[in-house]
Amino acid sequence: MPEHPTTQHATYDQLISLLDSSSVDYRLIDHAPEGATEAVCALRGHPASEAAKCIVLRVKVDRRTTRHVLAVVPGDRQVDLDAVRALFAARYVGFSDAETAERLAHAVPGTVLPFSFDPDLELVADPDVLAQPKLYFNAARLDRSLLISGADYERLAKPRIEHIAASASA
Fold first, then answer.
1. Contact of 112 with 73, CB cutoff 8 Å
2. What is the arithmetic mean of pLDDT over 40-44?
C-alpha cells in the first residue's frame, strides 16, 4: 500500500509539534525507506530490543462491541494476543486490517507511531518498552525514524501499561 503523503506528513508534523512543545530531547534519523522492524533496526544501527514495534489490533469484547488497540512491544518481541484478550475480557483478538489500521493510526503499516492521535485507538504499551533508555521508531514515515527515551515516551504518550509482549519464538 503506497504512503498517502497528506496523512503521512500531517501525522509526522503532529508528532514533531508534540515533541517540540513538550521540550523533549529527541533525534531524527534519516535512512533508506523501510518499515520492517528488523531491517530498519539494522539501518539505524541498534538492537531490535530498543525499537518500539507498533501493531493495531481488533478486539471483539462481545458480539456488538469491537475496540481497536495500538499495542506497543519491544522490537525483538511479538504481541501476546492471549494477554490482550485477557486484558479486555474479549472473545477475540486479532490483527486489524490494513485499511482500518491506517485510518486509526493516521499512518501506513510500517510507519505506525507508538502514539495514538485518535480517540478510537486505545494505546497499550508493554513495560519493557518504557524501560528503554533509547527507544527508536519510524516517525510516520518509512525514511525517517525518531530516538527518544522510554521515560519521555511514557510521559508524552500516556499509554496504559500492561504486560503484552511475548518472545518472538512463542
1. no
2. 96
pLDDT tens-digit series, residues 83-112: 999 999 999 999 999 999 999 999 988 999
Look at strands 121-125 and 66-74 and give their pairing. Answer: parallel
Residue 63 identity? R
pLDDT over 70, % of the chain? 95
pTM here? 0.93
Output the DSSP codes for 72-111: EEETTEEE-HHHHHHHTT-SEEEEPPHHHHHHHHTS-TT-
The pLDDT mean for the chain works out to 93
Q: Give the chain's end-to-end CA distance (angstroms, integer).
A: 28
Rounded to whole angstroms, how far apart are CA atoms 85 and 91?
Answer: 7
Cα(98)–Cα(42) distance, rounded to whole angstroms?
Answer: 25
- Number of helices and strands in the chain (H, E): 6, 10
* Bridge partners, 148 (sequence order): 135
User: Could you tell me which residues come within 8 angstroms of residue 70 by beta carbon, excluding any fewer than 6 positions away?
Assistant: 54, 55, 56, 57, 104, 105, 112, 114, 116, 121, 122, 123, 124
